[in-house]
Amino acid sequence: RFQVIQSIIQEVLDEKGHCQVLDLGGSEKYWLIGEDFIKANRHRLHFTIINPELQESKDPALFTFSIGDATDPELFKGRKFDFVHSNSVIEHVGDMDAMRRFANNTRRLAKRYYMQTPNFWFPYEPHFRFPGFQWLPATVRAWLMTKMKLGFFARQDSYSEAKWHVDSIRLLSAGDVKRLFPDAKVT
After folding, report:
1. Percent of the chain predicted with pLDDT > 70
2. Please, which residues have CB within 8 angstroms of residue 93's CB and are 6 or more apart in sequence?
3. Do residues 51 and 25 touch, judged by C-beta distance below 8 A?
4. What DSSP letter does each residue of 133-185 carry, written as one string?
5. Is 65 helix (H, G, I), strand (E, B) or coil?
6. Left if phi > 0, otherwise alpha if psi is -120 to 50, otherwise beta: which for 76?
7. Whose CA is closest to 172, among 70, 84, 102, 99?
8. Using CA atoms in the order 9, 15, 16, 19, what is the torsion angle rounded to 10 degrees?
9. Are residues 38 and 62 in contact, defined by beta-carbon separation less than 8 angstroms?
10. CA distance to 4, 14, 88, 116, 132, per residue, from 126 (Å)
11. Alpha-carbon 123 to chain mean position
12. Predicted TM-score (pTM) of this structure
Protein backbone atom coordinates (compact mmCIF):
# COMPACT_ATOMS: atom_id res chain seq x y z
CA ARG A 1 0.00 0.00 0.00
CA PHE A 2 2.76 2.48 0.79
CA GLN A 3 4.09 2.13 -2.76
CA VAL A 4 0.92 3.85 -4.00
CA ILE A 5 1.16 6.57 -1.36
CA GLN A 6 4.86 7.05 -2.05
CA SER A 7 4.25 7.38 -5.78
CA ILE A 8 1.63 10.09 -5.19
CA ILE A 9 3.94 11.99 -2.84
CA GLN A 10 6.83 11.58 -5.29
CA GLU A 11 4.65 12.97 -8.09
CA VAL A 12 4.02 16.09 -5.98
CA LEU A 13 7.72 16.36 -5.07
CA ASP A 14 8.69 16.13 -8.74
CA GLU A 15 6.10 18.75 -9.66
CA LYS A 16 6.51 21.24 -6.78
CA GLY A 17 9.70 20.34 -4.94
CA HIS A 18 7.84 19.91 -1.63
CA CYS A 19 4.69 18.20 -0.41
CA GLN A 20 2.19 19.19 2.28
CA VAL A 21 0.33 16.05 3.44
CA LEU A 22 -2.90 16.10 5.43
CA ASP A 23 -3.65 12.88 7.30
CA LEU A 24 -7.27 12.65 8.40
CA GLY A 25 -7.43 10.64 11.62
CA GLY A 26 -3.94 9.21 11.52
CA SER A 27 -0.87 9.17 13.70
CA GLU A 28 2.83 9.86 13.38
CA LYS A 29 3.51 6.18 14.08
CA TYR A 30 1.50 5.16 10.99
CA TRP A 31 3.99 6.92 8.72
CA LEU A 32 6.78 4.59 9.86
CA ILE A 33 5.56 2.35 7.02
CA GLY A 34 7.43 4.69 4.68
CA GLU A 35 10.21 5.64 7.05
CA ASP A 36 13.12 5.34 4.58
CA PHE A 37 11.38 7.40 1.89
CA ILE A 38 10.24 10.02 4.42
CA LYS A 39 13.72 10.31 5.97
CA ALA A 40 15.26 10.72 2.52
CA ASN A 41 12.81 13.54 1.72
CA ARG A 42 12.17 15.02 5.17
CA HIS A 43 13.39 18.49 4.14
CA ARG A 44 10.69 18.53 1.41
CA LEU A 45 7.77 17.04 3.38
CA HIS A 46 5.40 18.17 6.08
CA PHE A 47 2.54 16.18 7.59
CA THR A 48 -0.48 17.74 9.27
CA ILE A 49 -2.50 15.21 11.23
CA ILE A 50 -6.06 15.96 12.28
CA ASN A 51 -7.51 13.88 15.09
CA PRO A 52 -10.16 14.32 17.79
CA GLU A 53 -7.61 13.73 20.54
CA LEU A 54 -4.29 15.44 21.19
CA GLN A 55 -1.14 13.64 20.12
CA GLU A 56 2.45 14.50 20.96
CA SER A 57 4.91 14.62 18.08
CA LYS A 58 8.30 12.95 18.29
CA ASP A 59 9.36 14.96 15.23
CA PRO A 60 7.62 18.39 15.30
CA ALA A 61 9.67 19.65 12.34
CA LEU A 62 7.98 17.00 10.20
CA PHE A 63 4.59 16.49 11.92
CA THR A 64 2.00 18.98 13.12
CA PHE A 65 -1.05 17.83 15.04
CA SER A 66 -4.41 19.56 15.11
CA ILE A 67 -7.39 18.61 17.22
CA GLY A 68 -10.50 18.53 15.09
CA ASP A 69 -13.24 16.64 13.35
CA ALA A 70 -12.53 15.38 9.85
CA THR A 71 -16.26 15.65 9.05
CA ASP A 72 -16.46 19.38 9.90
CA PRO A 73 -17.22 21.32 6.67
CA GLU A 74 -15.18 24.24 8.09
CA LEU A 75 -12.04 22.09 8.52
CA PHE A 76 -9.05 24.07 7.20
CA LYS A 77 -11.41 26.37 5.31
CA GLY A 78 -9.49 28.35 2.71
CA ARG A 79 -6.44 26.09 2.92
CA LYS A 80 -5.20 23.49 0.44
CA PHE A 81 -2.81 20.58 0.80
CA ASP A 82 -0.90 18.71 -1.85
CA PHE A 83 -2.14 15.31 -0.73
CA VAL A 84 -4.82 14.04 1.69
CA HIS A 85 -4.53 10.59 3.17
CA SER A 86 -6.77 8.54 5.41
CA ASN A 87 -6.18 4.98 6.60
CA SER A 88 -9.20 3.10 7.94
CA VAL A 89 -10.95 6.15 9.36
CA ILE A 90 -14.07 6.77 7.29
CA GLU A 91 -15.82 3.67 8.67
CA HIS A 92 -15.57 5.23 12.17
CA VAL A 93 -16.95 8.73 11.53
CA GLY A 94 -20.67 7.99 11.90
CA ASP A 95 -23.60 7.63 9.57
CA MET A 96 -23.58 8.04 5.79
CA ASP A 97 -24.09 11.81 6.12
CA ALA A 98 -20.93 12.06 8.26
CA MET A 99 -19.09 9.88 5.75
CA ARG A 100 -20.23 12.20 2.96
CA ARG A 101 -18.86 15.23 4.84
CA PHE A 102 -15.58 13.34 5.40
CA ALA A 103 -15.36 12.51 1.70
CA ASN A 104 -16.21 16.09 0.71
CA ASN A 105 -13.41 17.39 2.93
CA THR A 106 -10.98 14.87 1.48
CA ARG A 107 -11.79 15.99 -2.04
CA ARG A 108 -11.96 19.71 -1.17
CA LEU A 109 -8.63 19.89 0.65
CA ALA A 110 -6.42 18.44 -2.10
CA LYS A 111 -6.66 17.36 -5.70
CA ARG A 112 -4.70 14.20 -4.85
CA TYR A 113 -5.87 11.81 -2.16
CA TYR A 114 -5.64 8.21 -1.07
CA MET A 115 -8.30 6.82 1.24
CA GLN A 116 -8.22 3.23 2.48
CA THR A 117 -11.07 1.44 4.24
CA PRO A 118 -11.96 -2.22 4.82
CA ASN A 119 -14.43 -3.68 2.33
CA PHE A 120 -17.85 -4.67 3.69
CA TRP A 121 -17.87 -7.72 1.41
CA PHE A 122 -14.51 -9.08 2.53
CA PRO A 123 -15.37 -12.10 4.71
CA TYR A 124 -13.09 -11.22 7.63
CA GLU A 125 -14.12 -8.20 9.72
CA PRO A 126 -10.81 -6.58 10.76
CA HIS A 127 -11.95 -4.65 13.85
CA PHE A 128 -13.73 -7.54 15.55
CA ARG A 129 -11.51 -10.19 13.89
CA PHE A 130 -14.45 -12.46 13.30
CA PRO A 131 -15.43 -13.95 9.92
CA GLY A 132 -18.70 -12.52 8.62
CA PHE A 133 -19.27 -10.40 11.73
CA GLN A 134 -20.40 -7.37 9.70
CA TRP A 135 -23.16 -9.42 8.04
CA LEU A 136 -24.83 -10.43 11.31
CA PRO A 137 -27.71 -8.33 12.67
CA ALA A 138 -26.46 -5.54 14.96
CA THR A 139 -28.33 -7.08 17.90
CA VAL A 140 -26.48 -10.39 17.45
CA ARG A 141 -23.13 -8.61 17.10
CA ALA A 142 -23.75 -6.69 20.32
CA TRP A 143 -24.88 -9.85 22.12
CA LEU A 144 -21.69 -11.66 21.00
CA MET A 145 -19.61 -8.80 22.40
CA THR A 146 -21.17 -9.36 25.82
CA LYS A 147 -20.11 -13.02 25.68
CA MET A 148 -16.50 -12.86 24.45
CA LYS A 149 -13.52 -10.71 23.56
CA LEU A 150 -13.65 -9.85 19.87
CA GLY A 151 -10.68 -8.39 18.03
CA PHE A 152 -9.60 -5.11 19.60
CA PHE A 153 -12.48 -5.18 22.08
CA ALA A 154 -12.63 -6.76 25.52
CA ARG A 155 -15.82 -8.61 26.44
CA GLN A 156 -18.36 -5.89 27.13
CA ASP A 157 -20.12 -5.77 30.50
CA SER A 158 -23.35 -4.37 29.14
CA TYR A 159 -25.38 -4.72 25.98
CA SER A 160 -25.53 -0.92 25.61
CA GLU A 161 -21.71 -0.66 25.63
CA ALA A 162 -21.50 -3.47 23.11
CA LYS A 163 -24.15 -1.88 20.87
CA TRP A 164 -22.27 1.42 20.96
CA HIS A 165 -19.12 -0.31 19.65
CA VAL A 166 -21.08 -2.18 16.99
CA ASP A 167 -22.76 1.03 15.83
CA SER A 168 -19.47 2.98 15.81
CA ILE A 169 -18.07 0.96 12.89
CA ARG A 170 -19.80 0.98 9.50
CA LEU A 171 -17.92 -0.85 6.78
CA LEU A 172 -18.38 0.40 3.22
CA SER A 173 -18.84 -1.52 0.00
CA ALA A 174 -16.99 -0.56 -3.19
CA GLY A 175 -20.27 0.96 -4.40
CA ASP A 176 -20.49 3.14 -1.28
CA VAL A 177 -16.93 4.32 -1.85
CA LYS A 178 -17.67 5.11 -5.51
CA ARG A 179 -20.68 7.20 -4.49
CA LEU A 180 -18.66 9.07 -1.85
CA PHE A 181 -15.61 9.57 -4.09
CA PRO A 182 -17.01 9.72 -7.64
CA ASP A 183 -13.73 11.00 -9.10
CA ALA A 184 -11.60 8.25 -7.50
CA LYS A 185 -10.20 5.04 -8.86
CA VAL A 186 -11.57 2.34 -6.52
CA THR A 187 -9.50 -0.81 -6.21
Report:
1. 100
2. 70, 71, 99, 101, 102
3. yes
4. GGGS-HHHHHHHHTTS-BTTBPPPSSHHHHHHHHHT---B-HHHHHHH-TTSP
5. strand
6. left
7. 99
8. 0
9. yes
10. 22, 36, 10, 13, 10
11. 20
12. 0.92
